[in-house]
Amino acid sequence: MPELPNIVILTGAGVSAESGLATFRGPDGLWEGHRVADVCTPEALARDEALVQRFYDERRVKLATVEPNAAHRALARLDAEWPGGLLLVTQNVDDLHQRAGAKRLVHMHGELRSALCRACGGRSPFAGADMGAGPACPECGEAGVLRPDIVFFGEMPYAMAVIDRALMEADLFVSIGTSGNVYPAAGFVQTARYCGARTLEMNLEPSLGATYFHESRIGAAGDLVPGWVEEMLK
Ligand code: OAD
């Protein structure tokens, strides 16, 4: 590995678990009591918009009650202090990485605190708890057309061109708190490794793609990530 490696870090729901946000695939396979297919697909939105809007409205309210944890803070510190290339890619729709101070960050699955307009395609900040009430789009003025700015199954994740380039240029790829169930994110380790990166996983349990990682550290993100960041910055 070069002296100053280019780093790509992928985070998933596990990084926010210690802040009090539920992961997607709990032991019961449900996300906050719902099947992912009932709240996270374009078909679900078309079938029962009220349910889907209420679900994300509730997630937004919950988000206002939680804080970044030690893992978010350590990653924000690495982002601020690492002099080389770094991209933090999160699958999470919470804003805990930003609130901890991360800047070189992309939200590949969208954001809870953002609205997507079905009339004009604009994305706008949305911090309220009432998208289901049909507020007007701040960009085009049309009412009742905002939907959660969440990448549903079957939709294209954001920032894929930026992510692909970073993976190809990465010397170190680190995956934190993700089960490896959902593509394309689950395949990033393979892309990075085949392009020459060293690969490290930090997770509570081995992920589905565990065999693609050169190194695996098993434990809670809040315990493991600060120590790893210290190692990188020393
Ligand atoms: P999952 O819920 O599938 O996986 C979370 C992973 O985090 C599991 O492997 C847990 O073992 C691990 N974990 C739990 N607590 C942890 C902790 N304190 N420290 C470290 N690891 C911990 O969540 P994701 O892999 O993020 O998509 O799910 C990927 C995507 O599936 C999500 O982004 C979402 C969902 O459908 C969209 O919203 C589009």
Question: What can you tell me about this protein's structure?
Answer:
This protein has 234 residues and is α/β, with parallel strands linked by helices. The protein has two domains: 7-21 and 68-109 and 157-233, TPP-binding domain (Rossmann fold, 3-Layer(aba) Sandwich); 28-65 and 115-150, SIR2/SIRT2 'Small Domain' (2-Layer Sandwich). 32% of the residues lie in helices and 19% in strands. The protein has nine helices and nine strands. It has helices at residues 14-17, 36-39, 42-47, 49-63, 70-81, 96-100, 160-169, 188-194, 221-233; strands spanning 7-11, 86-90, 105-107, 110-117, 123-125, 146-150, 172-176, 198-203, 215-218. A six-stranded parallel β-sheet has the order 3-2-1-7-8-9, sandwiched between helices. Strands 5-4-6 form a three-stranded antiparallel β-sheet. Helix 6 (96-100) links the parallel strand 2 (86-90) and strand 3. 40% of the residues are buried. The mean pLDDT is 95. Bound molecules: 2'-O-acetyl adenosine-5-diphosphoribose. The site of 2'-O-acetyl adenosine-5-diphosphoribose (OAD) has 26 residues, from helix 1.
Name some characteristics of this structure.
234 residues, alpha/beta, Rossmann fold, SIR2/SIRT2 'Small Domain', 2 domains, six-stranded parallel beta sheet, three-stranded antiparallel beta sheet, 9 strands, globular, binds 2'-O-acetyl adenosine-5-diphosphoribose
Helices and strands, with pairings:
Blueprint: E1 7-11, H1 14-17, H2 36-39, H3 42-47, H4 49-63, H5 70-81, E2 86-90, H6 96-100, E3 105-107, E4 110-117, E5 123-125, E6 146-150, H7 160-169, E7 172-176, H8 188-194, E8 198-203, E9 215-218, H9 221-233
Parallel strand pairs: 1-2, 1-7, 2-3, 7-8, 8-9
Antiparallel strand pairs: 4-5, 4-6
Helix pairs in contact: 5-9, 7-8
Bound molecules: 2'-O-acetyl adenosine-5-diphosphoribose.
The site of 2'-O-acetyl adenosine-5-diphosphoribose (OAD) has 26 residues, from helix 1.
